[in-house]
Write a structure and sequence with these properties.
The protein has about 400 residues and is an alpha/beta fold. It is built from twelve helices and 15 strands. Strands 3, 4, 5, 6, 7, 8, 13, 14 and 15 form a nine-stranded mixed beta sheet that branches. It has a four-stranded antiparallel beta sheet with strand order 10-11-9-12, covered by helices on one side. Strand 3 and strand 4 form a beta hairpin. The two termini are about 15 Å apart. The structure holds zinc ion. The site of zinc ion has 5 residues, from loops.
Amino acid sequence: MQLNHARLLNSLKQLAQFGKVGTGVNRLSFTSEDRAARQWLLEHMRAAGLDAEIDGIGNVYGRARGVDKAVLIGSHTDSVPKGGWLDGTLGVLYGLEIARARNESKALPDLGVDVISFADEEGSYRALAGSLSFCGELSDTDIESARNTHGISLTHALAEAGYAGRPRARVDPGRHLAYFEGHIEQGPRLEVEAQKIGIVTTIVGIRRSRITCTGQADHAGTTPMHLRKDAGATAIKISANVLERFAQAGSALSVWNLGHIVFEPGAGNVVPSSAQVLVEFRDPQQEVLERLESEINAAVAEFHGQQGVTSEVAHLLSIAPADMDASLVKTIETATQQRAVPALRMPSGAGHDAMVLSRYIPSAMMFIPSIGGRSHDVAEDTRQEDICLGVDILADAVELVAQQ
Ligand SMILES: [Zn+2]
């Protein structure tokens, strides 16, 4: 298979023109910029010899002709507000370039390369909507209930885009031997450790809990300290306690974040009557997530009822860790060893479409370095030679699958 690096880089630059903002892109799902990018991709998939359509959820899906078996390569082309030019797009255009190279060089006659760009991975309406739909996990009710921050429904957005009523493409475990997703790392680890390829072992699980403290609003000047029912002070104490407990109970790979704290009524001269703290935490192992969740429960129980403040916790979100296919992990590793490329097995701290696909077909992810670890910002970038090395490794991995 003869890859064309210049063509890949040129395609990346062309796609970055849709919704261009500075050095990044503003390409929220189903906006005119996002739809134009999908149309561009559709035309280039067809030019590459794929049978390509945009389906009823906005997935752009191109299938190789004349084969019963294929690898599926993809990611997403939507972005966060003022996002980077490579997040998602890289993985889709890796697929496109490998499909082009396969067809031009008449390589892998028995193994096709199918390419997909999943809709709304970033969740303007519903995170991972495209991959969930592709795997049969997105119901019509899910679509009807999904809204963006302006209250616009996903149903309306799909109708506006002209995608509504089209059939929705589905994964085919009889055809798809593997799903490969190339992606930028979106963190600093590869760069810091002087590695070129990250081989994802697991996509971490995510949990989110909300701690609520309820006290009583009083005048902050006239109420003696020992008579206050200060929900704010209690929330801060519980938060500090949670941080200490997590540092003890977490694994080396655990991460956590107190992302949002709200005091009510929220004035300098009023004792807070209620306070809410949002805690999010991630780890590759389910049992560690269980342990951290029980530490939050323990912290809340420790302070509950003190100084007339009641405290409770609600567990809002639980996404299980998704292991990548062990054999495909090894395949990518072999591809890096063949070229003596420094590579590292690592978990993904961010969610990706591969976590959905991994429940249906053998799936694997590969990272290339992000400069300064920057992502979800226009500052996101990767060195050209790293982009090119990544597609070489991914194409080698596809050829290894074909040999197996
Ligand atoms: Zn992404």
